[in-house]
Amino acid sequence: MNHLLTARIQDNMAHFSKGQRLIARYIMEHYDRVAFMTASKLGATVGVSESTVVRFATELGYTGYPELQQAMQEMIRNKLTSVQRMDVTANRIGSNDILDSIFTQDMEIIRRTMEETSHENFYAAADAIAGARRVYIMGARSSQALATFLSYYLKLLLESVTLVETSSEAEIFEQMIRVGEGDVVIGISFPRYSRKAAKGLNFARDSGAKVVAITDSTLSPVAGPADYLLLARSDIASIVDSLCAPLSLINALLVTIAMKRKRDAENIFTKLERLWDEYNVYEKVDGKSGHEK
């Protein structure tokens, strides 16, 4: 657990009320669960009121329970095993409908991302990408799906875009051997963080390229080398990574770049529509149901 948080708890233990000591002990023993509990649920679990939980957080020097909870989440986001994720997910959903619960969680993640995203960083990153000589995109493990999506559309908008294969570190460096000034390297990484992505971005920075990092925390290993840090929430307690917020952020990034290069984008898509139609790339749907003649 966060050593600073542990020290705060130990230093204040003698001054805690009986209820606060119950909270402190439960956090010390089950911090991986508490990190995703609401104040009311934590209070009910240890047998104290929600207000006692809130006062406990302020006693530790936090502005409130959400800040205490965030401190715990920041420290464990790369440490939860798959088994722990399953356990936390089961506890959070409880007897609620799974489909409704996941939709609700994802909507909350997107809402928080929208509120916390730096517009300055976002538009500066979009400018850098739109004006880059070459763009390299890297995402390992589950983040590779996001990198592939971003690469597909950026290749339609920009002349030189490379999706970096991340099977091995040697392969990453070989594909990025020519990276340098005037280039932009986009790294996407969410818990559990990939070492390969962090090494690739450090290499890009040392080579003189600008680095855009899309991740979920300033503590992420890809945040350090970033010139432009774009933060998007992810539900790290889920059995599978919830990537709805970073995907929404990427959608916004693509639309922004398309608007910045509007004339080029219109020319490209006009040509593509003609080619798609000529070579019957897409199935035409007339709007009639399958049983209609």
Describe this structure in words.
By secondary structure, this protein is of the alpha/beta class. It has 2 domains: 1-76, Arc Repressor Mutant, subunit A (Orthogonal Bundle), CATH 1.10.10.10; 113-278, Glucose-6-phosphate isomerase like protein, domain 1 (Rossmann fold), CATH 3.40.50.10490. 57% of the residues lie in helices and 8% in strands. It contains 13 helices and 5 strands. Strands 2-1-3-4-5 form a 5-stranded parallel β-sheet, with helices on both faces. Strand 1 (135-139), helix 9 (143-157) and strand 2 (161-163) form a beta-alpha-beta unit. Helix 7 (98-116) packs across helix 12 (244-260). The longest helix has 19 residues, at 98-116. The chain is elongated. The mean pLDDT is 87.
Please give a handful of descriptors for the protein shown.
single chain, 293 residues, alpha/beta, Arc Repressor Mutant, subunit A, Rossmann fold, 2 domains
Strand and helix map with partners:
Elements: H1 3-12, H2 18-34, H3 39-46, H4 50-59, H5 65-76, H6 82-93, H7 98-116, H8 119-130, E1 135-139, H9 143-157, E2 161-163, H10 169-175, E3 184-188, H11 195-206, E4 210-215, E5 228-231, H12 244-260, H13 262-278
Parallel strand pairs: 1-2, 1-3, 3-4, 4-5
Helix pairs in contact: 2-4, 3-4, 7-12, 8-12, 9-12, 12-13
